[in-house]
Design a protein that fits this description.
Structural class: mainly alpha
Distance between the termini: 93 Å
Largest sheet: none
Helix content: 40-55%
Number of helices: 4
Shape: flat
Amino acid sequence: MAAKAHKGIVWDEANIAATYHPADKDYGHMKINEPNTPYAQPLQPDEEVPPMSLGGSHEGPMSHGEDAWSSADEESHPQKHDSKFDSKRKDHYNMRKALEDAKRLMAQEDEDEDEKKDAK
């Protein structure tokens, strides 16, 4: 008995390459011209850090070696600010009150709808 040749799919790989990957096709890779990232050379061990200027006579909080922000806050805003903030935060996050208000409003809306239906 003669062996039968199995016919299957035959791919024309040369045609596929020519169709989907032509030699002269530009795939849209684009060169973006951007300036280089600014880079400050590291200081040599014998160099000092140059002073920074903001353009005015303003001195930063660390210019005197102390924590100027915390001392200024304590002097100008005593504990009253924190308690006021805490009370506002508690009012804002009072979920029990919010749920009660929502239930009350929903009940009122239901009553209003019932009255409108009865009036028709």
